[in-house]
Design brief:
The chain is α/β, with parallel strands linked by helices and 347 residues long. It has 13 helices and 14 strands.
Length: 347
Amino acid sequence: MKVGIVGANGYGGAELIRLLHNHPMVTVDLLVSHSTQGQKITDQYPQLQHVLELPLEKLHVPEIINRVDAVFFATPSGVTKDIAPPFVEAGIPCIDLSGDFRLKDKQMYKEWYKNAPAEQEFLDMAVYGLPEIYRKDLNDRTFIANPGCYPTAALLGIVPAVKASIIDTTYPIIIDGKTGVSGAGRKPTQGTLFSEINENMKAYKLGSHQHTPEIEQVLSQIKGAETKVTFNAHLVPMTRGILCTIYASLKNIHLTDADVVQLYNETYQDEHFVRVRPEKCWPATKEVYGTNFCDIGVSIDQRTNILTIISVIDNLVKGAAGQAIQNLNLMNNWDEKTGLDTIPVYP
């Protein structure tokens, strides 16, 4: 299968190239970049010399439709909504990493993303691509909205507890998210300068992060009722990784750590990319570095009856490019581990 990557000069695009290079069913045939067109990808990423030395091309939809069998969109939000529809209408399988097609409510997208939304027909066509929750919806589909990085970690962490109805969702679920700087993208800003972030830690977008409604949309679908979360994000001085600490009030049920670990193991027993830790063993971001794994640990505070869940992913892999490739595999009825079955880079 020949694939193209639109937005290939960003971190997500580069990670797609890295992972697809070892995919036996795929060749990267086209790289598109608006800001660096005319250059080679090796001008942006010298480490790709002798690996992939394609030019970064201008977006020309009719030509691309005839050149590739599938397209990844690794663009900023607000871009893909305008350029993906012709590919979708032409029957080209599309996987969007930008976020433009995740929210099904146009007004909700406009409110949280501060952009004009996509047309409703394409929002309805796009399948939310979190395989561990929506696996049955992904086979033989041609248009997938790849989940956000924070929602991936948060949802994989909290969904088993919501499904099993062991938590009281009349109280907001609290999600404390921390991300590495690569999550802000490659475009330089004052807040991501080395001198600003090194030996520093800061919260951002308190109460207004665009991933909040995405998390609520999925939890409300699963619960069958409106489910609210309090989600706050923090930037930490590391390159890759997301750690979500999730707090939820347990119902009046006497549960132990062992009970919840068993519940999570049963939920994810057939999911290769989710690893549940045993009691008193909580994951760290470096333990999933460079992989498509999500590692989860749980703990109950018996004094306050609060369930704490720790969920970690690599934001560029399971939070972006790796999950997109996992979705490509499922779209084509390939083994979902194809091109992704690696162990963490550690230390």
